[in-house]
Amino acid sequence: MDELIRQRSLAEHIVDDLERRIIARTLKPGQRIIEESLCKTFGVSRSPVREAFQILESRGFVVREPRKGISVAKITPQEAKDIYLIRAGLEGLALSLAVRKKTPALLKKLENLHAQMIQASVKENGKTYNNLNQKFHELIIIACGNQRLIQLIRNFDKQTMLYRLAIVNSPGWMMNSTKIHAALIAAIKAGDADAAERIRKNSILGQIQQFPQIFSNEEGKDEDRF
Fold first, then answer.
1. What residue ranges of the chain are covered by domains with CATH 1.20.120.530?
2. Is 107 helix (H, G, I), strand (E, B) or coil?
3. Phi, psi angles (nearest 5°) of residue 81
4. What is the spatial distance between Cα 214 and Cα 194, in angstroms, rounded to a whole number?
5. Fold type of domain 2-72
6. Domain 77-218 has CATH 1.20.120.530
7. Which pLDDT does position 97 carry in this prediction?
């Protein structure tokens, strides 16, 4: 049993490392990931590496191709849209559940973060704003109390990180985002779970409109690399 736990721990460590590198684009879409190289890098046997591949494949980060092995998944605009549609439904549900719990402490924390987000927006500090935004929605997700739902959202959150960072840096996004968060807080304060869910879902779905520009920019970067 101890060996099984150790192997699982090693696999999770490899998963975390590869996810971080894929999101940061150190590992690029379509790039092969060599099993033997990972074994040498982490000083492990093939078993935890193969388990890590299975986890990453289930989360959509890598794909397994016949005679080619494992490579970083290439996400098309349609696949990104599909991911966002699912994410909108999941986060909307989490927000609805959190509102129905009526937790005063949650509202106070969200209001405090929102005040900081407004200041970051005024200073046009995208990095700080994004960090605060992450904390804002993480609080809501945890407050829903549904562990299976929380895990699903976190998986989709990682898959959309690359595109969300591009959206955050778009002109006028932060100012508009603070208005959406103000509406969310008002709905939470009123205990209107349906309104809060609708606002969150529409906010996420609205980001899909920027995909053509984002993917166009990504294609340009790929051309520059070759």
1. 77-218
2. helix
3. -60, -45
4. 31
5. Arc Repressor Mutant, subunit A (1.10.10)
6. yes
7. 97
81, β-bridge pairs = none
Among residues 84, 3, 69, the alpha carbon closest in space to that of 36 is found at 69
3-state percent breakdown (helix, strand, coil) of the chain, nearest 5: 80, 5, 20
Q: What is the pTM of this model?
A: 0.74
Residue 208 — pLDDT band, cuts 50, 70, 90? Answer: confident
- In one-letter notation, the amino acid at residue 4 is L
Pseudo-torsion of CA 121, 129, 96, 55, nearest 10°? 150
Give residue for tokens 């794909």.
63
**Residue 1's pLDDT band (boundaries 50, 70, 90)?**
very low
> How many angstroms separate the CA atoms of 89 and 96, rounded?
11
Give the number of C-alpha atoms closer than 13 A to the C-alpha of residue 56, restricted to the C-beta side: 28
- CB of 159 closer than 8 Å to CB of 83: yes
One-letter amino acid of 68: K
Cα angle: 88, vertex 128, 189; to 5 degrees? 50
Q: Output the pLDDT for position 164.
A: 67
Per-residue pLDDT of 14-47, as tens digits, reads 999 998 898 877 898 889 999 999 999 999 999 9
Structure tokens at 208: 């899909």
Report the pLDDT value the prediction gives residue 22, as an integer from 0 to 100. 87
